[in-house]
């Protein structure tokens, strides 16, 4: 069994690789960073330090190779592999889609009848369905039948924390959380479902996707944006600040009440889930940079994403939301000259003002209660929080 993975970053090397290799796949990485490609092909191995509560273990990742995403050979690989995964960031999916289209058309021209399943492991709700939509908007209608018959687009929920380390200087070494969760929609596979260790098959994926995005990612993002306001560099630093931890935990509880109402989760079980995540954020091994967690604020402020969705849900169900609003306001203050979305957000606010920016970015109704609440907190958070 062969697998191609787009994205030789933290999640790709620290999570997907160890799961697929443990499951018997030969893994090929694809990335646009030629330096990482060269290192992978030179060493063909690297080490991961797995950490948990009072737990440390070094494991070896072996027998890997890599190809540049712009190399024509990637199309030949796509034409033959059994599984394709991605962890490149949502913004990269459009470019990956174009590569996949060419590779799958080659696969079709070679009369390959072997099913191919694609799983986008991105921090976006139903990321694989999003990727499928991009592909079907680009391919000619004559290819629809082949894609529908032989190509499976499988949505998933993936949960682990892998902070950035100086991987290039240390031959791709990573520190990774021992905790990992990979839940997939069993109904979207084509052909035989691959036997992948530590992958959970589900008939009802959406509650799991939202549980993760609207709990872990909600809390993680708020910790990052509040930490940025206080000039911290890592999530761990943020979690040492009692004023931040109080808001983060309460925001996760507010979002949790929405999930309990929406999906009929057991309230005590979900609170236990929140407490476990909170402890994971405070792990001293995870010096996760705020810059990494806070990146792409426009995506995170989308109406259907980790900050706005639980806030709107709380209003809908008449539940508390004050800490979620603080997180949203903090996100609107995020400024990073190395982050394109941050630059765009800042420019929108400067040119159009905060109200019109919220309408455009969050798709909220102008002059609505929701916008007024966010605007009020936007202007007060710096004065009241610092």
Automatic annotation (TrEMBL):
It comes from Buchnera aphidicola subsp. Rhopalosiphum maidis. Belongs to the mannitol dehydrogenase family. GO terms for molecular function: mannitol-1-phosphate 5-dehydrogenase activity. Keywords: NAD, Oxidoreductase. The keyword NAD applies. GO terms for biological process: mannitol catabolic process. It comes from the Bacteria. Residues 204-345 form the Mannitol dehydrogenase C-terminal domain. Its EC number is 1.1.1.17. It is an enzyme of class 1 (oxidoreductase). The gene is mtlD. GO terms for cellular component: cytosol. InterPro entries: 6-PGluconate_DH-like_C_sf, 6PGD_dom2, Mannitol_1_phos_5_DH, Mannitol_DH, Mannitol_DH_C, Mannitol_DH_N, NAD(P)-bd_dom_sf. This is Mannitol-1-phosphate 5-dehydrogenase. Residues 1-196 form the Mannitol dehydrogenase N-terminal domain. It catalyses: D-mannitol 1-phosphate + NAD(+) = beta-D-fructose 6-phosphate + NADH + H(+). NAD(+) binds at residues 3-14. The keyword Hydrolase does not apply.
């Amino acid at each position: 069994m062969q697998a191609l993975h787009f994205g030789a970053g933290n999640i790709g090397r620290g999570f997907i690789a160890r799961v697929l290799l443990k499951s018997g796949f030969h893994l090929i990485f694809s990335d646009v960073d030629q330096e990482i490609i060269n290192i992978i092909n030179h060493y063909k191995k690297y080490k991961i330090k797995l950490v948990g509560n009072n737990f440390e273990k070094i494991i070896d990742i072996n027998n890997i190779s890599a190809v540049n995403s712009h190399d024509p050979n990637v199309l030949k690989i796509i034409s033959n592999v059994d599984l394709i995964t991605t962890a490149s960031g949502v913004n990269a999916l459009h470019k990956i889609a174009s590569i996949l289209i060419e590779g799958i058309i080659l696969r079709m021209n070679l009369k390959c009848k072997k099913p191919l399943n694609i799983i986008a492991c991105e921090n976006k709700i139903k990321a694989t369905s999003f990727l499928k939509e991009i592909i079907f908007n680009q391919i000619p209608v004559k290819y629809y039948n082949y894609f529908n018959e032989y190509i499976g687009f499988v949505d998933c929920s993936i949960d682990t924390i892998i902070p950035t380390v100086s991987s290039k200087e240390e031959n791709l070494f990573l520190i990774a959380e021992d905790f990992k969760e990979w839940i997939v929609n069993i109904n979207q596979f084509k052909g035989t479902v691959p036997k992948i260790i530590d992958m959970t098959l589900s008939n009802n994926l959406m509650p799991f996707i939202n549980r993760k995005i609207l709990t872990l990612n909600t809390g993680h993002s708020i910790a990052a944006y509040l930490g940025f306001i206080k000039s911290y560099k890592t999530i761990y630093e943020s979690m040492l600040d009692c004023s931040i931890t109080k808001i983060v935990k309460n925001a996760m509880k507010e979002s949790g009440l929405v999930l309990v109402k929406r999906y009929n989760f057991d309230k005590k079980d979900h609170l236990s889930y929140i407490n476990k995540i909170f402890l994971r954020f405070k792990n001293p091994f995870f010096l996760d940079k705020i810059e990494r967690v806070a990146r792409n604020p426009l995506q995170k402020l989308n109406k259907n994403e980790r900050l706005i969705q639980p806030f709107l849900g709380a209003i809908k169900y008449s539940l508390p939301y004050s800490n979620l609003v603080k997180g949203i306001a903090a996100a609107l203050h995020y400024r990073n000259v190395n982050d394109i979305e941050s630059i765009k957000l800042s420019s929108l606010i400067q040119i159009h003002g905060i109200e019109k920016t919220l309408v455009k970015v969050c798709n909220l109704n102008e002059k609505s209660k929701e916008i007024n609440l966010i605007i009020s907190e936007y202007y007060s958070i710096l004065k009241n929080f610092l």
